[in-house]
Amino acid sequence: YRHSYAFRGYISRGAENTAGVVDEREQVEIGDEAPAHADPTCVRPYYERLRGPNQWPAEEDCPGFRTELEAFAADMQALSMRLTGALAESLGLPATHFDPLFDEPHTQLKVCHYPALEAADANASGVGAHSDSGFLSLLLQDDAGGLQVQLASGEWIDAPPVEGSFVVNLGEMMQLASGGRLRATVHRVVRAPRRARLSVPYFFNPRL
Fold first, then answer.
1. Which of 6, 1, 2, 8 is nearest to 43 (CA)?
2. Which of 92, 99, 111, 164 has the most other CB atoms within 10 Å of its CB?
3. What pTM does this model have?
């Protein structure tokens, strides 16, 4: 991850924080594949630095990893476009209303591992409370649990895994685009005692 100006690759446990609290997870992050900039420091506008190559493990070290994740990401993009159309219709708009924003969507895919909570750990948080900055987030999770969502009242409720389904979180861009009628989902992950957790979140955002 330190070798990628586009924030791609492996991120070790404890390398990130949310609101000043260390995130107890490790992850691999990929995005839309693009050629490397010859000199990223000269790229303008700055957000163009988010385009770049992924850092894939060697095929012999992790057979099928790249092939499977690229196919999964393509499926998630298609599903996200369908959901975006449905959300537009829920606002009384044509299903294609948001399509011009996504002629070249900016996407991210992560594979996250949250270690089990041991008695000696002081931090029970896998990732702290936050809302995603983008448009839509689709989450595939195992059966370990730990995902929680905050209601408008401030109460936290569990979002238990449902086999064969995705959790769909609305992001801050969707809240803005809907004039606040659709609220960004505030969520967090609480680590379970002696049970590791795996999740695969996909982030769907408008073009840069």
1. 6
2. 111
3. 0.93
